[in-house]
Amino acid sequence: MVDKKFGAILIPDWLGNVDEMGVALGPKVLYNTVIKSKKLIFGEPIAAYITDCVEIPFLEPKRVDYLSSTRAKYFSEIDTIQLRICDEIKAMINCRKIPIIFLGDDSSLVGTISGFISVYGSQNLGVLYCDAHADLNTPDTTRTGKVYGMPLGFLMHLQGHTMKCNEVLQPLTGRNIYMLGQRAFDPIELPLILDLEIPHASSDEINSSNYLADDIVDYFKYNGIENLFLHVDADVIDPAENPGVVIPENYGANLSNLLRILWDVALMTNVAGLSISEFVPRLDVDCKTRNNMAMIVESVIESIVSRRV
Predict the structure, then answer these.
(1) CA-to-CA distance for 274 and 80, rounded, in angstroms?
(2) How many CA atoms lie within 13 A of 295 on its CB side?
(3) What is the pLDDT of residues 9-24, one digit of tens each?
(4) Angle at CA of residue 249, ends 247 and 251, nearest 5°
(5) What are the b/e assignments for 149-184, b being 16+ CB within 10 Å?
(6) pLDDT above 90 covers what percent of the chain?
(7) d(Cα 36, Cα 28) in Å, to the nearest integer?
(8) What DSSP designation does 239 have?
(9) What is d(CA 205, CA 21) in angstroms, rounded to the nearest whole number?
(10) pLDDT above 60: residue 66
(11) Which letter does DSSP use for residue 8 in this model?
């Protein structure tokens, strides 16, 4: 019998990336792959657990905004849609459903995570951030103006930068975040990670440690955090396994090891939600990335259900 419900939120955003519009096709492709999966959890198909689906359309961009901005391209459009995303997250949680968010690019993590902060409070929400990149830039530090490299910068209110959805919320701090798999850093990011005291486990540690899941869980427990949000960018996995990504970075995590860590973490903690992002179908090879990212969603759902049975 299915007694734990999930809801899907599809956000086909690409404005934070600017150049790769194909990332907007990723959410629906992945959602359809998951919902049509033949995998059974306690005798029930995945579709029996995902009982709701909301798609949030993105605003038509103003080209002049892109041309005139070097600090945060398409910021006004991205900023506006984050309020809707935040509200949808809150509504789904209030309906006692665990949100599974299928993102295009990472810029919409600001509205996504703000929705969880609005419900659980920043003092009681942890973020396991699985990504090849640290995403700690702001409009003051970015070298490209692409907002998909800034979500944690906005969520932590770095240099005083926020979006409308989180300007009145308490910022995340180092105690709220555990970074997993980052290996491509902008010049300002490594010093920031040290200054902000954000723990970071490399791809090598993902691929070799048998105790990393315990370390992650212990870190959040030590900080008194009971609710955990999981974010998995497709580029955290090595491009040999996950070729369909916006910016492939070599020496990434092995899928099997990442799956094991996410399974164990979800089994040991209260996972409040999951997001996946940055899958570009046209860059995929033999559907590898599509199938791998769908497998991550299915595995996390199964682990959450197993913990709560």
Answers:
(1) 22
(2) 16
(3) 999 999 998 888 889 9
(4) 165
(5) bbbbbbbbbbeebbbebbeebeebbbbbbbbbbbbb
(6) 90
(7) 12
(8) T
(9) 33
(10) no
(11) E
Lowest mean pLDDT among 1-10, 34-43, 282-291: 1-10
CATH of region 6-308: 3.40.800.10
Q: What is the mean pLDDT of the chain?
A: 94
- Going by the DSSP 8-state scheme, the letter that residue 171 receives in this structure is P
Q: What is the pLDDT of residues 115-154, one digit of tens each?
A: 999 999 999 999 999 999 999 999 999 999 999 999 999 9
Q: 86: which 2 tokens?
A: 């935040």
Please write the tens of the pLDDT for every residue from 284-309.
999 999 999 999 999 999 999 998 65
Q: What number of CA atoms fall less than 13 Å from residue 267's CA on the CB side?
A: 12
Express as a percent the part of the chain with pLDDT over 70.
96
Nearest to 49 by CA among 99, 5, 1: 5
Domain coordinates in residue numbering, the chain? 6-308
Output the six-digit token pair for 12. Answer: 């086909």
Interatomic CA distance for residues 127 and 121, integer angstroms: 12
Residue 111 to residue 181: CA distance in whole angstroms: 23
In this structure, which amino acid lies at residue 171? P
Using left for φ > 0, alpha for ψ between -120 and 50, and beta otherwise, residue 94 falls in alpha
Give φ, ψ of 218 to 5 degrees: -65, -35
Sequence-ordered list of residues with C-beta below 8 angstroms from that of 92, at least 6 positions apart, any chain: 7, 9, 52, 54, 99
Q: Are 276 and 20 in contact (CB under 8 A)?
A: no
Nearest alpha-carbon partner for 244 in 183, 294, 275, 287: 287
Bridge partners, residue 201, by sequence:
180
Beta strands in the chain (DSSP E): 6-11, 40-41, 44-45, 50-55, 98-103, 125-130, 177-180, 200-201, 227-233, 270-277
